[in-house]
Amino acid sequence: MKRFIAPAAQLGKEAQDMFDRLFGWIGRRVAAHLNAPLAHYQAFAVSDIATLRAVLQPADVVLVDGELRISAVIKYLTQSTWSHAAMYIGEGAAPGGELVEADLVEGVIVVPLDKYRGFNTRIVRAVGLGAEDRERVVRFMSASIGKAYDLKNVTDLLRYLIPLPYVPRGMRRRLISLGSGDPTRAICSTLIAQAFQLVRYPILPRIERCPDDERGRRTRRQILHIRHHSLFTPSDFDLSPFFQVIKPTIAQGFDYRALEWSDAPAGGCGDAAGEGPP
């Protein structure tokens, strides 16, 4: 009897390995398709890299209006400009760059801030985050570098290929979190949400309001419940009342009187190129 058990077990392992290789191959093909850039990208809120770097602090979240195919789906499902998020960990904190992000193909990586030169970006900062907790958040992100997205979980990827002419608002967030049940890093915001939940910093918690007391007076106490990190999207950091939007141009000192407009009387680039008034 034993001699039949071993071959059966071996056959099961070989079949599993075959399916893993097959789904891994499909996953890589799907991920490459989703990671391809779209034909057109419009920039409207671009800050130069030097200005961004001057105002960024460790644990700041950089939101990006991405140009990839997966970006278009995420922006539709979240009804937001922002489709990608990365965390700034500081210059010299890790070799290769200052931002930690989760890439669909490469996994959790470090990239230079210059990667998003010419992209629409926004900086959001956790208000009142203590120095010790800030260090823990950054340390968690740094320790995650090298983790790979499991491309065998093809269901996590196929949700982004489904034609989406209309999805009811109440189902959009669930569609993003649909998948194998494992923490997915297809959307980088899930990894960042994990980092902040580590120190119990709120993003968009579910709020339970305490009922009226025995005298009929409504209590003001609110109890916060942590949402699962797989439900967070890049736009949540923008919507959160606990994160401050940092605008680099204003933070560096903005004077509208110093702006040079194209219809100014002095000759400018437009006139020199023959683009001024006839």
The geometry reads as globular
Mean pLDDT: 76
Strand content: 5-15%
| Number of DSSP strand runs | 8
Label the structural class: alpha+beta
Could you tell me the radius of gyration in angstroms? 24 Å
Task: Return the string of H and E elements.
Answer: HHEHEEEEHHHHEEHEHH
List keywords for this structure.
278 residues, alpha+beta, six-stranded antiparallel β-sheet, two-stranded antiparallel ribbon, 8 strands, 13% strand, globular, disordered N terminus, disordered C terminus
Can you offer a commentary on this structure?
This protein is an alpha+beta fold and 278 residues long. The chain is built from ten helices and eight strands. Strands 4-3-2-1-5-8 form a six-stranded antiparallel β-sheet. It has a two-stranded antiparallel sheet with strand order 6-7. Strand 3 and strand 4 (107-111) form a beta hairpin. The chain starts with a helix and ends in a 6-residue tail after the last helix.
Summarize this entry quickly.
With 278 residues, the protein is an alpha+beta fold.
Please write out the topology.
Elements: H1 2-34, H2 49-55, E1 61-64, H3 69-78, E2 84-88, E3 99-103, E4 107-111, E5 121-126, H4 131-143, H5 154-158, H6 169-177, H7 189-198, E6 206-209, E7 222-225, H8 234-239, E8 243-246, H9 248-251, H10 269-272
Antiparallel strand pairs: 1-2, 1-5, 2-3, 3-4, 5-8, 6-7
